[in-house]
Amino acid sequence: MSKETDQTNRYGKRAVTNIPDDAPLSERPGHKLRSSTEIVDRRRLPPDSPTVQGQTIQTVEGDGESGLIRFSDTESGEHQVPNQFTGPSFRTKQERFRFDGHKMIYHLDRVQAWKRGERFAPVHIDMGLTKFCNTACIYCYAVVQNMTRGTLIQSDALLRFIEDCGQIGVKSLGFIGDGEPTLNPALYDATSLAHTLGVDTAMATNGLLLDLDRAHELLRAMSYIRFNLSAGTPEGFQRVHQSHSRNFDILKENIRTLVALKRQHGYDCTLGIQMVLIPECFDEVIPEAELGAELGVDYFVIKHCSDSEYKELGVDYDDYRDMGERLQQAEALSTDNYVVQVKWNKINAAGETPLYKDGYRKYDVCYGTPFLVQISGNGKVYPCGPFFNKERFLIGDLHETSFKEMVQGERYWQVHKDVSDSVDVHKDCAIGCRQDYINKFLWDLENPPEHVNFI
Ligand code: SF4
Q1: Is residue 429 very low, low, confident or very high in pLDDT (cuts 50, 70, 90)?
Q2: Which of 433, 438, 439 to probe ligand 1 with, by most ligand atoms within 8 A of CB?
Q3: 453, 445, 357: which is closest to 105 by C-alpha?
Q4: Rounded to 5°, angle at Cα 412 from 126 and 382
Q5: Angstrom distance (rounded) from CA 355 to CA 316
Q6: Which residue did the predictor score with more confidence, 193 or 137?
Q7: Residues 279-333: pLDDT tens digits?
Q8: Which of 66, 312, 341, 352 is 20 to 30 A away from residue 60, measured at CA?
Q9: For the segment 103-135, what is each residue's pLDDT rounded down to a tens digit?
Q10: Going by DSSP bridges, is the β-strand pair 380-382/372-375 parallel, antiparallel, or unpaired?
């Protein structure tokens, strides 16, 4: 709390100070290099003392060092400030997965190659392993993309693709696509092969058909396994996933088993659950946040529901407007070992100006697809998921052409160029696609402000 002192400043006004009464002050104030060798001993600052700009501070000590953490004065008081954009400090555990952003600054070699107009391998690929599913979640985007029972990338094509990824330097593969990955029996061999070749893998699954006899292979090799679960109660599960409520128990048991195996064997694999927020699961947010803590997963992330450019799912982002408080309550259930996080950037789309809230992008060109390619569960390669099945943007089929040849060939780069030259991101693309964060970064890079040397 600031207080007036007896002294006047050089404008004749009474001086105001925030210095705590019991802070050790040097006898002669002033710049320490000029007039004093004493500095304030931070360890003697009282804990939780209110200070400037509506922030509170907390003193922390460890490894013989002491420091201060500033907290913003929000109701939950959980968020440290600022650390909004440039990334978390080591203390900001809540931000350690960077769900609501991108990691392009760690791949500047590819960015430089792109700037030089060279051909390079994507940093990451999201791919479906099948084009069908054993549940029928009501938010599912894939249903507008010709899901076909029994269609899946064949094992030999998948394994050859993974070898290519290792050879050309693809950094990571997310088995996250149109169909359920555990319905492809090659999942386990593909994961182990990628691990051997130094390609990171991850998976998003409904978790019902996991082969627990082979769970070790996944836990040993994968960076993370994310369970698609948008409910915290059996009733909610039935409603949103259109699956029998007894499957809710099966899923919980499978997650518990993986958590136990991970702990028992010290696997690094991160285990998380993800909710796709739609009105039918608004009431499930808090129960699921509590369920995640009970199951012992590492995180619970809540994201917006993606719709097609024709809005076939009928998602209305205005529905999210009243959810802020409840989502903050869920985030407040985070602990040091359990992150609950909302993808605010996308959830808050409806709070944007009328221009942006209806899908107008904050950039004019999609440059991101060469860095993040998406492959359909039938083995067909496209620049991005929303363009699956659009012949104009089909790069090739992994059953017919090797991925290495594709990346080195003409068609691959023609399609990416077609995207950046011809796609009107404001009209042809739905709100918040996978490449959206990357596109913002690349747009800034291509359109620098004045005086960039004044960093
Ligand atoms: S901006 Fe459009 S073209 Fe680019 S990745 Fe997103 S949906 Fe695809």
Answers
A1: confident
A2: 433
A3: 445
A4: 35
A5: 15
A6: 193
A7: 899 999 999 999 999 999 999 999 988 877 677 777 777 888 888 899 999 999 9
A8: 341
A9: 999 999 999 999 999 999 999 999 999 999 999
A10: antiparallel
In this prediction, residue 355 carries a pLDDT of 65
Q: What is the pLDDT of residue 84?
A: 37
Is residue 277 within 8 A of residue 316, CB to CB? The reply is: no
- Which regions of 45-136 does DSSP assign to beta strands (E)? 56-62, 65-71, 124-127
Could you tell me if 208 and 162 are in contact, meaning their C-beta atoms sit under 8 angstroms apart?
A: no
Is the Cβ–Cβ distance between 121 and 128 less than 8 Å?
no
Residue position matching structure tokens 């950094």 = 171
Beta 339-342 vs 299-303: how paired, if at all? Answer: parallel
Q: Residue with the nearest Cα to atom 6 of ligand 1? A: 433
Report the separation in Å between the CA atom of 435 and the middle of ligand 1, taken as the mean of its atom positions: 6
Give exposure, 221-245, as e/b (b: 16+ Cβ within 10 Å): bbebbbbbbbbbbeebbbbbbebee
Work out the angle between the directed axes of helices 108-115 and 436-446 (0-180°, nearest 10).
50
Burial class for 24, CB neighbours closer than 10 Å (0-12, 13-18, 19+)? exposed
DSSP letters along 9-66, please? -TTSSEEEE---TTS---SS-S-HHHH-S----GGGSPTT-B-GGG-EEEEEEETTEE
Rounded CA-CA distance 269/258 in Å is 10
Residue nearest to atom 7 of ligand 1 (CA): 429
- Tell me the whole-structure pTM to 2 decimals: 0.80
CA of 384 to the centre of ligand 1 (A): 6
What is the amino acid identity at position 270? T
Q: Which amino acid is at 297?
A: V
Torsion of CA 390, 318, 179, 397, to 10 degrees: 20
pLDDT for res 188:
97
Here the contacts of 74-77 (C-beta below 8 Å, separation 24 or greater) are 74/328, 75/328, 76/328, 76/329, 76/331, 76/332
Centre of ligand 1 to C-alpha 102, Å, is 15
Model confidence at 58, pLDDT cuts 50, 70, 90, reads low
C-alpha of residue 152 to centroid of ligand 1, in Å: 24
Q: Are 307 and 141 in contact (CB under 8 A)?
A: yes
Residue with the smallest CA separation from ligand 1 atom 4 is 366
- Nearest-atom number in ligand 1 for the CA of 428 is 2
pLDDT at 211 over 60: yes
